[in-house]
Structures are given as C-alpha cells and as structure tokens.
Write a structure and sequence with these properties.
- It is built from 15 helices and no strands.
- With 271 residues, it is mainly α.
- The longest helix is centred in the C-terminal third of the chain and has 20 residues, at 251-270.
- 31% of the residues are buried.
C-alpha cells in the first residue's frame, strides 16, 4: 500500500517528468520512482510502477503518436519496470488509435523472450481492446499466430481462452478462425487448438460436440491430433471415431487413436 503522501508525490513527479523531461528527450523515467524508499526483494514495489505507468499513460494519451522513441527506450533500456510502464501506455494509446498502436505493438511482441512479460503485455493491451470489439481484431491475432513465435503464441492462447470465458459469443468466430488453419497446424498450433476446444466445452457443450460431429469421419492425422488433445468428455460418436482411428492402417492415425482411447476411458467411466 502506498501512503497518500507518496502517492501524491509520485503523481506530481510523473507530471513534472512529462512536462519537463519528455520534451527534452530525457527518457529516464526511473528518476520518478527510484526515490521511493521501500523495496520488496530489492525491487521497487509493483504498485509504485503501476501508479507511474497509469499516470504517464493518461498524460500522453491525447498525443501518444509523438512519443515512439520514448516507448522504444522504455522497452530497450528500462528492464521490467520499463516494460510494465510501456504496457500501460500502450493500453491507453490503443483506445485512442487501435490500428496504429497494434501495428507498433506487433513488432515488439515478436521480440519478447520473457513469458511472464509477454503475458502481461498481451493481457494489459490486447485483451481490453478485444473485450470491446473482439471480432474486429481476430485477423490480427491469427496473423500473429502464423508468425510461429513460441512465447507470443502461448500468450495469445491465454488471451483466446480468457476471451471465450468473458464472452461466449466469441466462441464461434474464434473457433472458425483457428479452424481455417487446421490443415497447416504445426505441433504448437495443434496444442493451442486443443486447448481452445477444451475451453469451449466449459461454456458451450453443444458446440463442442458439434465440432466432433463435423469431423466424425476424418482420417486426416493433424485433425485427429487436435481433436484427440481436446477430449474432455465422452459420447458414443467420439468413442466410435477414436475406435476407427486406433484400427487404422495409417501408423500416425493409429497412434493418435490408441492414445485417445486411453484419454477417453476415464471420461466414459464418469458418464
């Protein structure tokens, strides 16, 4: 908890930084929070960084397109604290001009190696935007997934699952976007599609079983692998489908079927 005195000081110092330092291209924003006397594990408390980030984001928002060098500096020079502040700025800026800042953010997200930070940025920036207009930005998400960046893909998987949980109306458009890439799915995308299907089951079992019905007669190994990884319930049609795979002469399909049979047994018992 930040005391009221320190809260007021941090807000004022952030305003001073915005008014005096930024115009001079002095981007060392740590001058604002380094004076804070308390540390947690030798680090400035996250609450302090969050306050500074939200304050500078609000100040910059109306003319956010003027400060790209500052954003670059934050993520390149200021470590975790700079990344947190960057995320709050991007979140605010995208409410003003989504396309411009999404494009800028894409470039950066493809370079992030730290999973925790990538998750944080996606959650603070893209998620709020898609909560409001999810369908409008699904192409952006699927295009990012196609880049094949492992860290970013895991963050986007969390994002899609969170969106489905927040708004079940997004189930169909999200699934259909992902489904269009099934024929070309690599191992990572197979796992992502399976995870999304499992989440769909939690919110719309009818649609979940409808997907399995659609692919009941598939013999395409990658489709079978996605469906096998998504099994989290039993019905007779799924049972027959898996049995057919396990009896296949296609070695890969047979292997998938045998593995799926093991998964299916525990759900059959619960039926």
């Amino acid at each position: 908890m930040i005391s009221l005195d320190w809260k007021e000081r941090l807000i004022q110092d952030t305003k001073d930084f915005y008014e005096r330092k930024l115009p001079q291209k002095d981007y060392d924003i740590d001058i604002v929070y380094n004076a804070y006397p308390q540390r947690i594990d030798n680090k400035i408390p996250n609450a302090v960084i969050t306050l500074v980030g939200k304050t500078i984001a609000g100040l910059i928002a109306k003319q956010a397109e003027e400060y790209f060098p500052f954003y670059d500096y934050l993520i390149e020079k200021k470590g975790e604290n700079g990344t947190i502040i960057f995320a709050y700025i991007m979140a605010k800026a995208m409410t003003k001009n989504g396309p411009v800042f999404l494009k800028y953010l894409e470039k950066y997200l493809l370079t992030v190696e730290d999973q925790k930070m990538c998750n944080f940025i996606v959650d603070k920036t893209i998620y709020p935007l898609m909560k409001k207009t999810g369908k409008d930005h699904l192409d952006t998400i699927t295009n990012l997934l196609k880049k094949g960046n492992h860290t970013l893909n895991l963050s986007l998987q969390k994002l899609l699952i969170k969106l489905i949980a927040h708004n079940t109306e997004l189930i169909v458009p999200i699934f259909q976007k992902l489904e269009s890439s099934w024929p070309y799915a690599n191992d990572e995308m197979v796992k992502l599609n399976s995870a999304v299907l499992k989440e769909i089951y939690k919110h719309d079992q009818n649609y979940y079983f409808k997907v399995f019905h659609t692919y009941a007669h598939t013999r395409i190994p990658v489709f079978a692998e996605i469906l096998s990884g998504a099994i989290c319930a039993y019905n007779d049609e799924i049972g027959e489908m898996v049995e057919t795979w396990s009896a296949s002469g296609n070695i890969k399909l047979k292997k998938i079927g045998l593995h799926a049979e093991k998964s299916l047994k525990k759900y059959k018992k619960k039926k």
